Amino acid sequence: MARGGSRPGAGRKKGKVNEAKRELAEMAKEHAEDALLTLVEISKGNTAASARVSAATAILDRAYGKPTQALEHSTPDNSLTRLMEDLAGTTFRPVEFPGVCTMGRALGKDVGSDSSIYLQINGMTYFFANEDAKATFMKDPEGNLAKAQAYRRPGSA
After folding, report:
1. Rounded distance between C-alpha atoms, residue 117 and residue 126, angstroms
2. What is the pTM of this model?
3. 101: which DSSP letter?
4. Whose CA is closest to 20, among 55, 62, 66?
5. CA 100 to CA 109: how far, in whole Å?
6. What is the pLDDT of residues 107-132, one digit of tens each?
7. What is the DSSP letter of 92?
């Protein structure tokens, strides 16, 4: 019984669809000027010609592609707006040990961090696993920072 997955020779051949699209676009471009003139004629006239507009639009779309459309994003609770308001005036500084608890490094351990618990020292941001780790770090910030910077993971050069 056949199973799914890729098989040699299966599927659409590369370039096949592109060639067909290219031919269709070339054919449509031959009529693009007439289509544009039709749109101009209709826009200046007083007759209802929705079918003609649709046909002209379809020809232009095939000749030059559909126009890009702007997207508007919103969330029901305006969380993005709220986040931007919360961050207004906040200065972001580089993180020295991304995703790692600075006090854990000072103790020679790889411990994950909570990005909401941090300190900013000398233009750098340092994360901690919890408030206790942060408090312990603050008992000797210079010494602990030096230990954290000197720490090398086992097996790293």
Report:
1. 9
2. 0.43
3. -
4. 62
5. 9
6. 999 899 988 899 988 888 899 999 99
7. P
